[in-house]
Amino acid sequence: MTNTVSPNGGKMRAAKAFGFSLDEIRVVEDDAPVAGPGQILVKVKAATLNYRDLAVLTGTYIPGLPLPLVPASDACGEVVATGEGVSRFKVGDRVTPIYTQGWHDGRPTPEQRAKRTIGAPLGGVLQDFVVVPAEDAVHAPSNLTDAEAACLPIAALTAWSALSAGPMKAGDTVLLQGTGGVSLFALQFAKMSGARVVILSSSDEKLERAKALGADVGINYKTTPEWSMAVKAATDGRGADLIVETIGSSLPESLSCVSFGGTVAVVGFVAGYETKLNVRQLIGPMVRLQGIAVGSRRGFEDMNRAIELANIKPVIDSFYPLEDVAEAFKYMKKGSHFGKIAVNL
Ligand SMILES: NC(=O)c1ccc[n+]([C@@H]2O[C@H](COP(=O)([O-])OP(=O)(O)OC[C@H]3O[C@@H](n4cnc5c(N)ncnc54)[C@H](OP(=O)(O)O)[C@@H]3O)[C@@H](O)[C@H]2O)c1
């Protein structure tokens, strides 16, 4: 069906950042978009937040980004209109737009990585309707609610790509850092693949919750700041075969506990972008360092099949209405969440 008529009389709600501060996010009325040729118009049902959004909203991720900006990258919604020539989706389908628009398989082009990511520099998903090319969305897994499917585009796909960086096999040990969105998906995918999971957290209570999800060993990085020793002890001295580095500045500590020939998938920077490395930590133990930038549409579709088959359910910490989205970001900044923070539209 081709439909170029705007819904809701052409108007919609949109959360916009008018400055680089969480106090400058306001929900305003805006013009609803219309699907052009090759595009789908999606009624956003739910969105989820990522650490990246905080970095964007405080101006540290892409300094000089033009404002106002609709933040956030991850959403699930229903196709309400299709533009001319669209056959990939029909009205009524549940979809999730992909984060790096245009990256379908293989390696992304520099152009895609620099300019085609939703939520900055492209506009985000915290609005009632979004338009994306039909080629740049995937079907939502049938076993997930809208909010659960909205957790997938960045957090889940990044975890999936990081675990694919190994390769990881059953019986390997995977080290995860923190109990945020990426780490908890990595925990679920690693257990699905038969790996042993060692997880770090600032909170003993969160470590217990991670164990309830299948984590084998929990280490409190506050009370055990030199946690590499504890990881070695938990692996009979071998170290972790695959480390999903979300802390960033702890890379030297990770290199102290990666196994001989193991992999560190470098994903995040929650404690800072910079660190000092001794290259001998890489050379002697023949460690592989692999940067991760979310993933391609192919990876997303592979992951969704696994999510359906294994009936993986994303861990959602809390739900906020669109009107309270600034509070949701402030809650995320506090860091007491376990898993994802969702926004219902
Ligand atoms: N490269 C990519 O493709 C990609 C994709 C997604 C995310 N990322 C990055 O990966 C990181 C995690 O993202 P996320 O969305 O999972 O974040 P998140 O949901 O906010 O979780 C981050 C978790 O890290 C732990 N943490 C926070 N500050 C810490 C510190 N100073 N030292 C050690 N641990 C700390 C906390 O766990 P506890 O409360 O359990 O201590 C926190 O819940 C971010 O840097 C994000 O930008 C990168």
What's this model, at a glance?
With 345 residues, the chain is of the alpha/beta class.
Describe the structure.
With 345 residues, the protein is an alpha/beta fold. Helix content is 27%, strand content 26%. The protein has helices at 51-57, 110-115, 146-149, 152-164, 181-192, 204-212, 227-234, 251-255, 280-283, 297-310, 325-334; strands spanning 11-17, 25-31, 39-48, 74-82, 94-97, 129-133, 137-139, 173-177, 196-201, 217-220, 240-245, 258-266, 288-291, 316-321, 340-344. The strands form three sheets. Strands 3, 4, 5, 6, 7, 14 and 15 form a seven-stranded mixed sheet that branches. A six-stranded parallel sheet has the order 10-9-8-11-12-13, with helices on both faces. Helix 4 crosses helix 5. The longest helix is centred in the C-terminal third of the chain and has 14 residues, at 297-310. It is globular, with a radius of gyration of 20 Å. The chain starts with 10 loop residues before the first strand and ends with a strand. Residues 50-52, 154-155, 158, 177-183, 201-203, 206, 221, 246-247, 267-271, 292-294, 332, 335 line the site of NADP nicotinamide-adenine-dinucleotide phosphate. NADP nicotinamide-adenine-dinucleotide phosphate is lined by residues 50-52, 154-155, 158, 177-183, 201-203, 206, 221, 246-247, 267-271, 292-294, 332, 335.
